[in-house]
Design brief:
The protein is built from four helices and four strands; from the N terminus they run βαβαβαβα. By secondary structure, it is of the alpha/beta class. It has one domain: Rossmann fold. It has a four-stranded parallel β-sheet, with helices on both faces. Helix 2 crosses helix 3. It is globular, with a radius of gyration of 13 Å.
Length: about 100
């Protein structure tokens, strides 16, 4: 069996979430896994979220890591359109910490 290679799409819902999601990129880099980081909001730009999710597999992406605070809608919206696994990362936000993100 040949070696399977793919990249990871890391999606942050806002610039304030970017520093946390950048740590995912660093970890993947340390394992030799290529990744790309994108900032896009499920609330402010749902068409772009849909396009990214639908085209991910065709663009060589094997998994999407989506991080968002508050309602954490980003991972769910991406998963509803993607044909690859989506991992949702609940991020800290006021006033509930990350509990609201985790529960959604």
């Amino acid at each position: 069996m040949g070696k399977v290679t793919f990249s990871v799409l890391i999606v942050a819902a806002s610039r304030s979430d970017l520093s946390v999601m950048e740590e995912s990129r660093k970890t993947l880099d340390s394992f030799g896994v290529s990744s790309r980081v994108v900032i896009v909001s499920a609330h402010r730009d749902p068409d772009r979220v849909r396009a990214l999710a639908k085209k991910a597999r065709d663009n060589g992406v094997g998994v999407i890591i989506a991080g968002a605070g508050m309602s954490a809608a980003l991972a769910g919206v991406m998963a509803s359109y993607a044909t690859i696994p989506v991992i949702g990362i609940p991020l800290f936000s006021e006033p509930f910490g990350a509990l609201d993100s985790l529960l959604s």
